[in-house]
Specification:
single chain; alpha/beta; Nucleotidyltransferase, domain 5; 2 domains; five-stranded mixed beta sheet; three-stranded antiparallel beta sheet; 10 helices; 8 strands; about 15% strand
Length: about 300
Amino acid sequence: MKTTISLYEFMKLFPDERAARIHIESVRWKGQPKCPKCGAIERIQPRKIEGYFRCLACKLDFTVRTGTIFERSHIPLDKWLYAMYLINTARKGISSLQLAQELGITQKSAWFLLQRIREACSNKSDDDDDFLGGVVEADEAYIGGKETNKHESKKLKAGRGTVGKTAVLGMRERGGKVFAKVISNTSAGVIQKEIRTKLKPGSTLCTDEHGAYVGMSQYEHMVVRHSAKQFVDGMAHTNGMESVWAVLKRGFYGVYHSFSVKHMQRYVDEFMYRMNEGKCSVQTMDRINSLLERVAGNRITYRILIGA
């Protein structure tokens, strides 16, 4: 079975907003409209306007947009679906400027749309497993602009390496999922707390020689010593997590050029979603449907977004 569909094929599937709405309804409601307020499914009455419903239990009028990232958006649903198609098929991401040109909307609207989709990327579906297990690689990365590329007035002049960058902790289960989270610093207290939150006791933890990983007796800890130019020692390596950072940084430098620290977790969530549910081995529509299953209960307003 072919795992990808071309843009031409996608546009034929969803030529207008009605086709997109019907598809989103089928994914969200599985053929039975459900009240987003009280959860009723028996006492739902179709309204005169197609796509509108009334819950006779709580008197709420609603559509498939209600209670989702689509709510109160004037952008047609076929454009939303097209944006999801692009996010799922562009391995390094898509900028708001390019999306604005693709959809025929303003850059501001495209940025807001992308941030709402990223919010959905962070939302867990019902079948998500909270924990990683087995052999898990953990590593930290620093995301931010290079000092040499900054305008003179924006240079921090406080050294090299991690100066002015934001720390991100990542964990990759071999043969499984990837998790990454923006962290305040790379101290042992912060890193070990995050690892214990996501990693099952008894798992095998593979890291570099960073001292923050020392002292977690509930895991079998395997260390590879990068400072000694050692990158693989039997099962001990972090090459899988390093490949995740490589994709994230290519998107950072090649597509977005910068991530706002305030919104960085959303960008990270987008890339982690693409690594997990959005990987190329999964059929394109399955990837899009997986994202559609996350849109409910994750609405974010523009005021909250810019004021966060």
